[in-house]
Amino acid sequence: MMVEAKTLPVIGIREIDDQHAQLVACLDRLALWVGKGQGFAAALDAMQALNDYVETHFSYEERFLAEHGYPKLDAHIAEHQRIRDELAKLNIAVLDGGDISEELLTLVREWIVSHIGVEDREYADFVER
Ligand SMILES: [Fe+2]
Ligand SMILES: [Fe+2]
């Protein structure tokens, strides 16, 4: 079953909003394997795509914020690290047999969506001033 999609916040920077949409699309693809207990290769594929995309996006954002001299860059990087840690738990669950709990996936999704809505929005306000 699909994990309920929470509305994705928009931060007003086109390239980054596009990346966020892609990131959530990766989560949706992974959600297709929740509770299936089968389709290990496909779940692994979806998980790998999510890992790659998170890394690509976080590096892009951290570079972008460094270029703009964002004063809260260190705190932002620490937040990204916390999300990476949550994601690592999801990776373990997938590698453990390809079955993902809906609870864990929802948690990771919450972390990502609320990070976009709070911390990402905050830097967007700074950059656009
Ligand atoms: Fe972001
Ligand atoms: Fe971020």
Report on this model:
- Helix 1 packs antiparallel against helix 2 (40-67), helix 1 packs antiparallel against helix 4 and helix 2 packs antiparallel against helix 3.
- The chain has a single domain, classed as Four Helix Bundle (Hemerythrin (Met), subunit A), CATH 1.20.120.
- The chain is 74% helix and 0% strand.
- It is elongated.
- The mean pLDDT is 89.
- The protein is mainly α and 129 residues long.
- The chain binds fe (ii) ion (2 copies).
- One fe (ii) ion is lined by residues 20, 57, 61, 116, 120.
Record the SSE blueprint:
Elements: H1 14-31, H2 40-67, H3 73-95, H4 102-128
One fe (ii) ion is lined by residues 61, 76, 80, 115, 119-120.
Keywords:
Four Helix Bundle (Hemerythrin (Met), subunit A); 4 helices; binds fe (ii) ion; about 130 residues; mainly alpha; about 0% strand
Short précis:
The chain has 129 residues and is mostly helical. The protein has four helices and no strands. The relative contact order is 0.19.
- Count of DSSP strands: 0
Tally of separate domains: 1
For the record, the CATH architecture stands as Up-down Bundle
Secondary-structure content class: mainly alpha
Q: Return the CATH class.
A: Mainly Alpha
CATH superfamily: Hemerythrin-like
